Amino acid sequence: MNIPVNLILLCSIIGAVVLTYAPFLVVAWGRFKAGYDQSAPRAMFEQLPDYAKRATWAHQNSFEALTIYGLAALMAYATGVESAWAKIAAIAWMVARLLYSVFYIINIPLGRSLMFAIGSLCGWTLFGLSILKVMN
Questions:
Q1: How far does CA 117 lie from the centroid of its chain?
Q2: Is the pLDDT score of 103 beyond 90?
Q3: Contact 12/94 with Cβ under 8 angstroms?
Q4: Which residues contact residue 57 at a Cβ distance below 8 angstroms, ignoring those fewer than 6 apart?
Q5: Residues in contact with 127: Cβ distance below 8 Å, sequence separation at least 6, in sequence order
Q6: SS3 assignment, position 108
Q7: Would you state the torsion angle of the CA atoms of residues 5, 13, 89, 60, taken in this order, to the nearest 10 degrees?
Q8: Does domain 5-135 match CATH 3.40.50.300?
Q9: d(CA 110, CA 85)
Q10: What is the pLDDT of residues 82-97, one digit of tens each?
C-alpha cells in the first residue's frame, strides 16, 4: 500500500493530538479510584496512586512533544517533503510516543528515555528534511 507522505503527515498530527490525551484516561481512572474531588481537582494530586501521578507527567510532557512534532510535521507538509524517511519518521514518532507514555506509566525509566530520544530524533528528522527540500 503506497500511502502519500502528505496524508501520513496529516494523520500523524491527528494521532499526536490523540496520544497527548491518551495518558489522561489513566489519570481519570486514578482520580476515580482515589475519590475525585470536583471542587479541588488539582489539590488531590498527592492522593493519586503512583501510576496516575506518572500518567499526569506523561500527559504534561506530551504537550511539549506535540508542539515540536506538530511544527516539524507541518513544515514537512508545507514544503512538500516526499521522502520515505518522512513516512518512517512520522510513524516511528507515533509508536515512540505511545510507548513513551506506557513506559512512563508502568515505571520503566530506561524505556521511557529511549522512546523520548527516538521521538525527538523523528521530529528533528522532519525539520531537517524540510530544510533540505527548500534548499534544493
A1: 12
A2: yes
A3: yes
A4: 104
A5: 72, 75
A6: coil
A7: 180
A8: no
A9: 26
A10: 999 999 999 999 999 9
